[in-house]
Amino acid sequence: MTSLAVRLMEIDDTQLEEFIELWIERASQQYHRVERIGAANDKGRDVIGFLSPSRHEGLWHLYQCKRKTRGGKLGKGEGLAELGKVFFHYCQGAYKTLPDKYVFVAPRGIVGSLMDLINNPTTLRTALIDGWDEHCASSITRRQTTPLSPEIRAAIDGFDFSKVEHLTAPMLVKDKAAGPALSKVLGLMPDEAPSGSAPITIQAEEAVYVDQLRQVYGQATGSAFVTADDVLADADHGEHFRDQRTRFFEAASFKRFHRDNTAPGALGTFEDDVYHGVIEVHRDRHETLLRRVDAVMKHASILPASLIGRSVRVPVKQGMCHHLANDGRLKWAP
Prior knowledge:
InterPro entries: ABC-3C_CTD6. This protein is α/β, with parallel strands linked by helices. The chain is built from 15 helices and 7 strands. The strands form 2 sheets. Strands 1-2-3-4-5 form a 5-stranded mixed β-sheet. The chain has a two-stranded antiparallel sheet with strand order 6-7. Helix 13 (about 265-285) crosses helix 14 (about 290-300), helix 13 (about 265-285) packs across helix 15 (about 315-325) and helix 14 crosses helix 15 (about 315-325).
């Protein structure tokens, strides 16, 4: 078992629910909305993924977080009790449809008897009905005993128990989409982003800042360049332009990597740090537009901006300035 999985087993209930919320937002693009409810009156729901605006009147997935302390696994009785809550609250009208998928999130695992029931869905239905009085009747609400009413029995009989699944810590940490959630909840240091390289031909994603630089080089030369390719072929400015494109794609690779592997919001904070670190230099008076670009690049190279405590390579910080130009926050030309 990896050390990361062990750390995931040690987080508290609130952190586990936060992790699942962040993870399913990243892992599945199918959800219209993700909502964390987990509380004393959650009606059997910790984290929900709604598949449509209809929410509880349409398809939805339920992630029930069951963190066991002292090395314990989720037991059969507790698992059946949690399932019982869903059918009870459904029959009470808390939600108009039953979940299309029900997932036990048990970082420390589940006991063998519960595993056998989940892997044999028809036996899970039978166990829930037969074990209702023992496991569910007195645990669904504190105020009263909840008998297996005809309505609850009908709901259980009509449910497809193949929709019940489970997830453990070792299973979760293997999912690449879990990276940002693990980074935020466990406070992990992100890895080093891979380097980027500029394609030979100009790409659509760089069109805005490239066209601005085309104007910058035209001002410096005193003769307008018609296309970016004309700049690349220029003896005086071609190499300088290639350096800027390399920096842009270094930053593009950096952004793609950290969107997938770093806590939500961290990348935006880094971009803001770069912006505020260079904007005063950008606003200074400069002899030419090209001198302004060079001054900003020089200042960006020495910025102390970091991402969650990890220093960032010089070309990435410089390239981020071109991304800011691309986004309209920091323009190279009018």
